[in-house]
Specification:
Chain lengths: ~130, ~325
């Protein structure tokens, strides 16, 4: 092999970059392999079916935001016929008042950082 | 025609994954075995190709002279375009890889009426190519969020920059729009410029469609059909901890995406995509132009058996003397 030194450095860099997750996670030891959002409300159901909420709650929030801010509609009727005020800080966070153990639990795991809380008020959480 | 074959090939791949996961429920095959296999082929194939290139000798420096060579101290030399030492060669290489300087300089020849040949620039190709590659790179780096736990800070930073416009929810990534537009441009260019179409092969269209397919399935899944990202991360963390398990809750669109990615990875070492490694081994880019300052011996020179004049004379001295030929030594 010609220029073996340089080629091997290059290949080592390549291997290090592509295998970076493997040794990074291995070095950290026991990492959480799933997110575990905690439901604290006594209610049984969310504003929409759980499967839909898991995948698409941001679409719902977007819909709510558009309805309130652009159309002035503030009431959401769930599939069950139950009515909710379309509000992030009130409705969602009334039931899911444990933001750091619910929303953040998933979001940190999936690496998303919604910018909503720049303006909207986070629920005050009781320190346990 | 080549373009159609490539399109059919990608559609066929999508159908395979669709049937395999959608109707036959082969979750472990498409979610574990094929991805592992593809990744292994990618790594081994990549190493194989690089090492194979590395054992071919480069007999001497092949400088592409885009500027004055370093010579006498009072002649100003072009350090970047005609580097004379390792440092400037690395700079040239870095700019080549990061900004495609050679492509920026490339020209296009056209016959005008006359017929006269004229040269124009191809800055659109440069811009399209650069946009495509950067978008691709950033998307891949963003994907590290599925593989690394906790998600590294640089990924979060990339995401926030990429979603800078905060359009819609989930936030629209600029690179998603860029990769679709750039890949479409690169494709349209091959089809509409007759000379380029003439030299375009199946192997040119196929990766383009494959990457296009990957981008489109990814975009569909993020913005439209939706998937459970937490479930995906359970799968991916399973892979890298070598405790794989394929959860069934993930939508079909994810498996289409993943299968195309697997094919891309497995195909990579055997295709023109190897220019990822090849660019670093381009003799015209990675060698300092010091041909006149240093002696470079051809590495495959074998020891030539020479018969010097002295030896010749030693051998034939007597005969030469008899024939009255002049000899140097008595
Ligand atoms: C060549 C490699 C790949 C390319 C070019 C690619 C491209 C894309 C693109 C353009 C998107 C749209 C959303 C975004 O930009 O984040 C996307 C989403 C996605 N990709 Fe990939 N992808 C690749 C590999 C993978 C792999 C190996 C996985 C395996 C886990 C994967 C899983 C996903 C998932 C789960 C989404 C949806 C993300 C969301 O909903 O936010 N991709 N991909």
């Amino acid at each position: 092999m010609y220029d073996a030194g340089k080629i091997i450095i290059g290949l080592v860099v390549f291997l290090a970059l592509v295998s970076y997750p493997i040794w990074y996670d291995a070095a950290r030891g026991d990492i959480p392999t799933s997110a575990d959002p905690k439901i604290v409300t006594a209610e049984k159901e969310c504003v929409a079916p759980t499967d839909y909420m898991k995948d698409s709650h941001m679409d719902l929030l977007n819909q709510w935001r558009d309805d309130v801010v652009r159309k002035g509609v503030r009431v959401y009727t769930a599939e069950s016929g139950r009515k909710f005020e379309m509000s992030l800080s009130h409705t969602c966070m009334d039931c899911h008042s444990n933001k750091s153990e619910f929303c953040d639990e998933c979001h940190n795991y999936a690496g998303v950082n919604p910018y909503c809380w720049d303006c909207h008020i986070e629920p005050e959480e009781v320190q346990q | 025609m080549n373009a159609f074959y490539a399109l059919f090939a990608v559609i066929l791949l999508l159908l395979v994954a669709w049937v395999g996961v959608g109707t036959v429920d082969l979750y472990s095959l498409f979610g574990i075995i094929i991805p592992y296999l593809a990744f292994t082929i990618f790594i081994l194939g990549f190493l194989y190709r690089i090492i194979k290139w590395a054992i071919s000798p480069v007999p001497f420096r092949i400088p592409t002279t885009c500027g004055q060579q370093k010579s006498l101290p009072w002649l100003k030399s072009s350090k970047l375009d005609n580097p004379h030492n390792a440092f400037w060669t690395i700079i040239r290489m870095a700019l080549e890889v990061l900004t495609f300087r050679s492509l920026f300089r490339s020209t296009r020849a056209e016959l005008r009426e006359g017929p006269k040949i004229t040269y124009g620039d191809t800055k659109w190709l440069w811009a399209g190519g650069l946009a495509f590659h950067w978008a691709f790179l950033i998307i891949i780096l963003r994907h590290y969020r599925f593989f690394v736990e906790p998600v590294p800070a640089f990924v979060l930073y990339l995401q926030s920059m990429d979603g800078l416009f905060q359009i819609g929810l989930p936030v629209l990534y600029i690179t998603d729009a860029v990769i679709v537009v750039a890949a479409s441009y690169l494709f349209v260019r091959r089809v509409f410029i007759p000379q380029v179409r003439y030299i375009s092969l199946f192997a040119d269209y196929f990766p383009l469609f494959l990457i296009g397919g990957i981008a489109v399935t990814g975009i569909l899944m993020r913005y439209f059909t939706k998937i459970d990202v937490s479930a995906v991360k359970e799968l991916t963390l399973g892979w890298i901890n070598f405790k794989p398990a394929a959860p069934e809750g993930i939508g079909i669109m994810f498996y289409l995406h993943l299968f195309l990615v697997s094919v891309l990875f497995a195909y990579f070492p055997f295709s023109k995509l190897m220019h990822l490694g090849g660019i670093f081994l381009s003799p015209a880019r990675n060698l300092a132009n010091n041909n006149r300052a240093k002696r470079h011996v051809n590495p495959w020179n074998y020891d030539v058996k020479v018969h010097t004049y002295e030896e010749y004379e030693d051998e034939f001295r007597e005969v030469m003397k008899e024939a009255d030929l002049p000899v140097e030594k008595e």
